[in-house]
Amino acid sequence: MKRSEFWEKEKAARDRAKAEKAEGDGIYWPIFNLDIKNPSAKQDFEHLPPEQLADDILQKELRIAEIMREIKELLGRKP
User: Fold this and answer.
1) How far is Cα of residue 31 from the mean position of the Cα atoms in its chain?
2) 41-50 residues labelled b (16+ CB within 10 A) or e (exposed)
């Protein structure tokens, strides 16, 4: 095989590989693009007013304390 034939085959193989990669990327990236936001996601906390954030946190902490009291009562009972 002559050197020029080798380089021609090498260039053809590289061009074919580039075309196949571009075709694969065209299929893969639109499916797995993680930069797109979830349209059904809940509103982020960072966009809520500070007063509402504090109220939400307090309500959750109170609910946790209530559940912990119930658990302690259940653990205190002996069958």
Assistant:
1) 13
2) eeeeeeeeee
pTM for the full model?
0.41
Are 53 and 45 contacting, i.e. CB atoms less than 8 angstroms apart?
A: yes
Residue 66 and residue 75: Cα distance in Å, rounded?
Answer: 14
**H helices of the chain, where?**
3-31, 50-76
Six-digit token string for 71 = 């658990």
The span from the CA of 45 to the CA of 42, in Å, is 9
Each residue's pLDDT tens digit, 4-45: 888 999 999 999 999 999 888 888 776 766 777 777 777 665
